[in-house]
Write a structure and sequence with these properties.
The chain is mainly α. The model has no long low-confidence stretch (mean pLDDT 87). It contains four helices and no strands.
Length: 85
């Protein structure tokens, strides 16, 4: 399973939707995402991918997180920064 598929599952679970309804282009706000969903998604991503996602509510990068694809890019960056095992 690719990272984007896992992110789609996490996002779908947060908003009680079927993952097949979620694409990279799905707009989080239009899908019903709120600030609590963002926090819970970050926690779920950290747990699932075993990465640390630096979270600061004032971080401009988070304000740019508008689509599922944006979340997937944050995951890829966090995986890239993870120390090799």
């Amino acid at each position: 399973m690719q990272n984007i598929d896992i992110v789609r599952e996490i996002v779908a679970g947060q908003i009680s939707r079927d993952p097949s309804e979620i694409t990279e282009q799905t707009n989080l706000e239009e899908a019903g995402y709120d600030s609590l969903d963002v926090l819970e998604t970050i926690f779920a991503i950290e747990e699932r991918f075993k990465v640390r996602v630096p979270f600061d509510a004032n971080d401009p990068k988070l304000k740019e997180m508008k689509t599922v694809g944006d979340i997937a890019r944050i995951v890829e960056e966090a995986i890239g920064q993870r120390a090799p095992a």
